[in-house]
Structures are given as C-alpha cells and as structure tokens.
Specification:
It is built from 3 helices and 5 strands; from the N terminus they run ββαβααββ. By secondary structure, it is of the alpha+beta class. The N and C termini lie far apart (30 Å).
C-alpha cells in the first residue's frame, strides 16, 4: 500500500499506509490524522480538508480541476501548492507522498 506522510503546522510528522483508490482525505480521517476536518465527507463542497502538497510532489499531482480550484477560494492561507485532499486519489505512483496541514481549516 502507498505510504503518505502528513506533517502538521507544528512540524509533527505521521506516516500512514492507504489502499489504492482511497483519497488522501480518507487516509487521513481513517487513520486519525489531526488537521483534516473533512466536514463534507469528500464531496468537494467545503475546504476543510485543505493541505499543502510538498514541492517535490506538485508536478506528480498536477493542477486542481476548476471545481476544486473554486472551492479553495474558501480555504485559509491558500498557497500555490494548496489542494483539497478529498480530490487526490491514491495511486501506486504516490507512494511516499508528503503533505502538510495548515494551522487552521476553513
């Protein structure tokens, strides 16, 4: 299973393994990763699963689609590497993915 490392705003790191096909948000929620609220449950209807993708992985994930980009307008402290974790589907090629959670969601 691919491994994803979540780093919180304080620098604490937590690596989890998740099945191919899950989203990064599902991996966080099902493994109790703090900092991912996921209020809409992955419907891309809120911005409470906002993450920062590590610069080394930005190109591998590609750009957010228009719906996700619109929803990011509601997130706090958006950066060029911001994504919604509910919109990133886990694939074998994402083994080793590193993401950071913001200080606050919404």
């Amino acid at each position: 299973m691919p491994r994803i490392t979540f780093i919180d705003a304080g620098g604490m790191s937590r690596a989890v393994e998740a099945p191919v096909g899950w989203t990064v948000m599902e991996a966080a929620v099902k493994n109790g990763v703090p900092g991912i609220e996921a209020e809409c449950g992955g419907a891309c209807a809120c911005a409470t699963c906002h993450i920062y993708v590590d610069e080394a992985w930005v190109d591998a994930l590609g750009a957010a689609d228009p719906m996700e980009a619109d929803m990011l307008d509601f997130a706090s402290d958006v950066q060029a590497n911001s994504r919604l974790s509910c919109q990133i589907r886990i694939k074998p090629e994402l083994d080793g993915l590193i993401v950071r959670t913001p200080e606050r969601q919404g």
